[in-house]
Prior knowledge:
Layout: H1 3-24, E1 33-37, H2 43-51, E2 56-59, H3 62-74, E3 82-85, H4 94-97, E4 101-107, H5 110-123, E5 127-132, H6 149-157, E6 162-168, H7 181-197, E7 202-208, H8 215-220, E8 225-228, H9 230-233
Parallel strand pairs: 1-2, 1-8, 2-3, 3-4, 4-5, 5-6, 6-7
Helix pairs in contact: 2-3
The protein binds pyridoxal-5'-phosphate.
Amino acid sequence: xxxxxxxxxxxxxxxxxxxxxxxxxxxxxxxxxxxxxxxxxxxxxxxxxxxxxxxxxxxxxxxxxxxxxxxxxxxxxxxxxxxxxxxxxxxxxxxxxxxxxxxxxxxxxxxxxxxxxxxxxxxxxxxxxxxxxxxxxxxxxxxxxxxxxxxxxxxxxxxxxxxxxxxxxxxxxxxxxxxxxxxxxxxxxxxxxxxxxxxxxxxxxxxxxxxxxxxxxxxxxxxxxxxxxxxxxxxxxxxxxxxxxxx
Length: 247
Ligand SMILES: *Cc1c(COP(=O)(O)O)cnc(C)c1O
């Protein structure tokens, strides 16, 4: 099969996996969106997915995302991509991220929120954000500690340059996807807690959780968006530790 055909076939498999997980827990498959994690994947291959109607894309590294977004804009595509930043954002890279990302899923500290606000004000625009929560409490993962998430939501809600549309987490990786279940459950509970606070302008509906290996578990626990890379594009050349900090 051609590379394009291969990617299309894998996307169909993912759709089936997502739908089956939804059916198991009585959810409507339309409630769960697929974001394609495109790190290390060249623009031409991402284009195959885009032309198959998969427009929601996520990048980890700000500059890799920026050049890929640029490249893809030059390619003739049937659809326009929607980019989310799903990796760590350093404050000195904010302006590059804002060139292509319409949502920053990795907001995890007050200082980043302040700096984001300053840049957004300068550009006269606003953006969607998600708060990344370190639900597994692994030192190797970014994200706000669960007990600090409500305070961070309050901080973000003070700025009208950003809308907190959801929460994001990376589940614990282990020998079975089940090891992440409690992390995903905690993220859903965090959403309830934040909603119960009734913070004005803070409606974190989205739960961005689940990846190639554990997306079914995440969907069972309430994910509204799964982020999938390997299962669509194949194994990456770099280990994930290149993208995530060392523990
Ligand atoms: C790479 C990555 C994914 C996708 O992981 P796969 O195992 O390749 O599906 C999802 N979320 C984040 C934050 C990532 O860095």
